[in-house]
Specification:
The complex is a heterodimer of chains A (499) and B (99). With 499 residues, chain A is an alpha/beta fold. Chain A has helices spanning 3-6, 9-17, 23-41, 49-64, 107-114, 157-164, 181-187, 221-231, 249-256, 279-294, 310-325, 346-357, 360-373, 379-402, 425-429, 436-441, 471-485, and strands at residues 44-47, 76-80, 118-123, 170-174, 190-193, 214-218, 265-269, 298-302, 405-409, 445-452, 459-465. In chain A, strand 2, helix 5 and strand 3 (118-123) form a beta-alpha-beta unit. The radius of gyration of chain B is 23 Å and the shape is flat. Classes of the chains: A alpha/beta (499), B mainly alpha (99).
């Protein structure tokens, strides 16, 4: 395997800037890797070789001309197929948007391009980001590079799998209930959900607007921080964008790698253990907590009782917002249109198109949302869920009055088998048990690998949560932990060529 | 709490403009019932004195200067349309025969 594809983003950027290697060579090495293994992994829905090489050439030209380039210039990246990319298809894993080519770039896409980041292509995802396994993609599942019979998490399974398969050193995901962190955990990679409003949603196809948040995925904490600073920050095109500087996450990583966490107060969330948690996951988590103590952190237990109601609140709020957001797929202005035989009305064509264009999970959520918002049920369902949201926010506020960061396992189990939970929506939803509270409260959270489960040898994630706009706290802890524990990806199995 | 019938699912599908098949109705009726019973537990702790939160970040209206900015041209705006005619979106009839 080429050294280039094993390198971190930080290493690649330094070599490209120093002209030790060209951005074109780096891009080509990753395109070759994709050609070699993506037949097995299926992380990508679309590979833009031409565009990637052209972007790489521009970086090489800039470097050759002595122009200053950004900290990630020339580094390849895999972009979740939920961000609009001008001239490159964007499907959201749905037949509804098959063949759709956006006429504009999302702000995240634009910032990546302006930073000289080389976009390799678009990654597979659960349809409209609804799912925890990437099995809900209309284009077939992505496979976990650790075990091709297992799921890579979801909804951003393609992005995380591309990292673990060494197809890209960086990726972008979106996290509405855990769709960055849970795939990160089950693939042995790093995934960060920034503070709500920290990364622009302009051009991000909306699922649940009050929860959706784009963020970085990488193989190391430093790489995630570098990418976070490229994509983060105020955007006037997103009315919920926070007008504040990006938290100093790269500096926090530099501080963290010294390995000293003395004075840092870490809270263990007591709600996230017990029934439903895989013993190997809990053992990995306990070892991680012991490691944090060894690094000097002060560890206390913290109870957040309303977190037990986060899952039901989420599965009312997210579908409610989705039922409204997905009304835009009306078969009139863009996307698919079915059944327009000249006799049917617009409404009939709309209903036929939506039935054929959406997969089962999307339809379920639209109907749950429609139910929860309908008169007579609104107070009992949507209204109550919004109150739970208040209680969860209060629990976080109380907890962060006592500790600097909270920790928990990222997800209750390691990667499950493809097909295992496909017919049982509630079992699938439980993969998001630990990640959802941060979405409901709008607070930042990340997953960093905490080794392999001793019972199945699969990756486990440590979740670190911080107060709003205090991302640097969790990055510091993550960097110290990563420096002490080491990466797990050295032991990811070699992938055979396309099968 | 809920026990959601096949007819109710059909009604929801109509409201959501989803022309679901008979098979889908059978599948979804059972699944929606399980999901809705599970999520109904939010009512256990959502007492009357708790204010609802619609959004994690306090929202204020955002204003900008009323200036002309570049936008998509007609051709770009129509490029993804299922059908277009004379520079406009072509859609199926929206009114019944009698209207």
């Amino acid at each position: 395997m080429s050294d280039l594809i094993r390198s971190t983003a930080a290493e690649l950027a330094a070599k490209i800037a120093a002209r030790e290697v060209s951005a074109v060579e780096v891009a080509q090495a990753h395109l070759d890797r994709i050609a070699e293994v993506d037949g097995s992994v299926h992380a990508f829905l679309h590979v833009d070789a031409e565009g990637a090489l052209a972007a790489a050439r521009r970086v090489d030209d800039d470097v050759a001309a002595g122009r200053e380039v950004g900290p990630l210039a020339g580094v390849p990246l895999a972009l979740k197929d939920v961000f609009a990319t001008e001239g490159i298809p964007t499907t959201c894993g749905s037949k509804m948007l098959e063949g759709w080519v956006p006429p504009y770039d999302a702000t995240v896409t634009r910032r990546l391009r302006e930073a000289g980041v080389v976009i390799l292509g678009k990654t597979n995802m659960d349809e409209f980001a609804m799912g925890s396994s990437t099995e809900n993609s209309a284009y077939g599942p992505t496979r976990n590079p650790w075990d091709l019979d297992r799921i890579p998490g979801g909804s951003g399974g393609g992005s995380s799998a591309s990292l673990a398969a060494f197809e890209a050193p960086l990726a972008i995901g979106t996290d509405t209930g855990g769709s960055i962190r849970q795939p990160g955990a089950v693939t042995g990679t790093v995934g960060v959900k920034p503070t709500y409003g920290g990364v622009s949603r302009y051009g991000l196809v909306a699922f649940s607007s009050s929860l959706d948040q784009g963020g970085p995925c990488a193989r190391t904490v430093l790489d995630a921080a570098l990418l976070h600073e490229v994509i983060g920050g105020y955007d006037p095109m997103d009315s919920t964008s926070i007008n504040a500087p990006v938290p100093p996450v790269v500096a926090a990583v530099r501080e963290g790698v010294t390995g000293d966490l003395s004075g840092v107060r870490v809270g263990v969330v007591t709600q996230f253990s017990g029934d439903g948690y895989q013993p190997g996951v809990l053992r990995s988590f306990e070892a991680a907590v012991a490691q944090l103590k060894q690094l000097g952190a002060e560890v206390v237990e913290v109870s957040c009782p309303s977190f037990d109601y986060a899952l039901p609140a989420y599965y009312l709020i997210a579908p409610s917002e989705a039922s409204s957001n997905l009304a835009r797929f009306d078969a009139m202005r863009y996307g698919a249109r079915h059944g327009d035989d000249g006799t049917r009305s617009a409404e009939e064509v709309m209903a036929i198109t939506r039935d054929r264009g959406f997969g089962a999970e999307v339809k379920r959520r639209i109907m749950i949302g429609t139910y929860a918002l309908s008169s007579g049920y609104y107070d009992a369902y949507y209204g109550s869920a919004q109150k739970v949201r208040t209680l969860i926010t209060r629990d976080f506020e109380q907890a962060f009055g006592r500790v600097d960061v909270l920790v928990s396992p990222t997800t209750p189990t390691t990667a499950f088998k493809i097909g295992e939970r496909a017919d049982d929506p509630m079992a699938m939803y439980k993969a998001d048990l630990c990640t959802i509270p941060a979405n409901l409260a709008g607070t930042p959270a990340m997953s960093v690998p905490s080794g392999l489960s001793d019972e199945d040898g699969l990756p486990v994630g440590l979740q670190i949560m911080a107060p709003a706009l205090q991302e640097h706290r969790m990055y510091r802890v993550a960097a110290a932990y990563e420096a002490a524990r080491g990466t797990v990806l050295a032991s990811v199995p070699e992938l055979a060529g396309a099968r | 709490m809920p026990s959601i019938s096949r007819d109710e699912v059909a009604h929801l599908a109509r409201l959501a403009r989803l022309a679901v098949t008979e098979d889908e109705l059978d599948l979804f009726a059972g699944q929606l019932d399980v999901i809705l019973q599970s999520v109904a537990t939010v009512g256990d702790i959502a007492t009357a004195d708790i204010p609802p939160t619609s959004h994690a970040v306090p929202l204020t209206n955002v204003f900008r200067e009323d200036v002309v900015r570049p936008s998509l041209g007609q051709q770009q705006a129509l490029a993804g349309a299922p059908a277009a005619e004379d520079g406009r979106f072509r859609v199926p009839r929206i009114l019944g025969e009698e209207a």
